[in-house]
Amino acid sequence: xxxxxxxxxxxxxxxxxxxxxxxxxxxxxxxxxxxxxxxxxxxxxxxxxxxxxxxxxxxxxxxxxxxxxxxxxxxxxxxxxxxxxxxxxxxxxxxxxxxxxxxxxxxxxxxxxxxxxxxxxxxxxxxxxxxxxxxxxxxxxxxxxxxxxxxxxxxxxxxxxxxxxxxxxxxxxxxxxxxxxxxxxxxxxxxxxxxxxxxxxxxxxxxxxxxxxxxxxxxxxxxxxxxxxxxxxxxxxxxxxxxxxxxxx
Length: 249
Description:
The protein is α+β, with helices and mostly antiparallel strands. It is about 35% helix and about 10% strand. It has 8 helices and 7 strands. It has helices at about 35-45, 115-125, 145-155, 165, 175-185, 195-205, 220, 230-249, and strands spanning about 5-10, 15-25, 70, 75, 95-100, 110, 115. Strands 2-1-5-3-4 form a 5-stranded mixed β-sheet. Strand 6 (about 110) and strand 7 form a beta hairpin. Helix 3 (about 145-155) runs antiparallel to helix 5 and helix 5 crosses helix 8 (about 230-249). The longest helix is centred in the C-terminal third of the chain and has 19 residues, at about 230-249. The model has no long low-confidence stretch (mean pLDDT about 95).
């Protein structure tokens, strides 16, 4: 296959950026999208040019690092991560646009790499369970009902890639935040901090500059792990309940 990649090149967040075309040959249908970028970068390096900066780690669809907008879609035309997107999804001679996540809360570091530290700060605000040191309980000491375990696991599948933010017309992080809140809220271990968790994490999300949610649904469509849109409505109910309780207290 011979493809034309139009790649977003930008030195840093303050510098102007532009789409730069590159022709890439000898692409096989079984190659992953990141392998195509590897081929391009090897050529650019040999030619003495600056390689394209892009983020990746596990390349197994687990870590969520490979954040790319491909032909206008977060992670590309398939519901998977960019590292698991294979070139059989494209045709010989195609022109493919490759861009970083577009969100005010995700500033560009270089080329296709964005700073997703805002997600880390949301987690730090309350996405954890406090356990007294020196008294770790036996793993099976606290029974978890099967429906609660299933609900927690459904939300724990979120890999924090940020596709929900990139796909949302408002740049909202509600799907990510709700997945983290509902994951811990479904478990008995998360019950003691249930109210403070949702209030603190939502407040931090707003402070990071993410857009407001209008339940457009693009986030759930783009999510490679299938976090449902009902996660947001469940978090909204949790926030209202916690806010009323704090107001009464």
